[in-house]
Amino acid sequence: MKYPTNACILTLKHMAEISPQKLYIVIPAFNEGDVIEEVITDVKSAGYSNIIVVDDGSTDDTDLKAESAGAIALHHLINRGKGAAMKTGIEAAKIAQAEIVVTMDGDGQHNPCDIEKMISLIKDGNDVVLGTRMKNAKGMPFYKFLANHSGNFFTWLIFGLWVTDSQSGFRAFSRKAIGFIETQTARYEYDSEVIWEIKKHKLKYAEVPIEVRYTKHSMTKKHRQGLKNGLMTLVKMIIS
Description:
By secondary structure, this protein is of the alpha/beta class. It has helices spanning 12-17, 36-45, 62-68, 82-95, 115-123, 142-159, 175-180, 190-200, 216-220, 227-239; strands at 23-29, 51-56, 72-76, 100-103, 128-132, 171-174, 205-209. It has a single domain (12-239), classed as Spore Coat Polysaccharide Biosynthesis Protein SpsA, Chain A (Alpha-Beta Complex), CATH 3.90.550.
């Protein structure tokens, strides 16, 4: 996986506000051995050193490569789903006394330069910051564009809160938010359930545009959110 990276550094203001020991990046990963080292290097180059990778029952060497790249590598013995991996990573960050937790995907789609915007909004008083691809959808395949709009509609219909990208995994949470949010679902429906938790606990949230880098790896990997998974996610949202 090769992609251009924008030079990004934390401003002195934010460095002064955020203790490096209190900011954790959580990355769920399933069979991302080909790219996880580069993803971690990219995050570290952007100025973030506390990285938790949750290997969700991979059959490759995702966990070993994550550890060798300098991340804290946790491992599920079986594949439990994206939501379960997110919960494991966030619980680990809570144990480490994290003040801010940022979640992002393990396939290299997300640009770590966008993390600074998220933590700035948390520092401004938001409990949750949702990265949204829909405010800058350039390069997004049309079927993904339609799928995201459908996901937003059904999330609003079921949970009653409208957001522009209900399926984004690139998010930031305050310590208050990770203390309140208690999800029950284990797979892709987790992203929508978080929206319900925001509404239920009346958490203050904001949305911020993010860059998405659609690589050959992210577009061709076997286990990704597609039409079949999307329909299954919808059914689980309705019956949960």
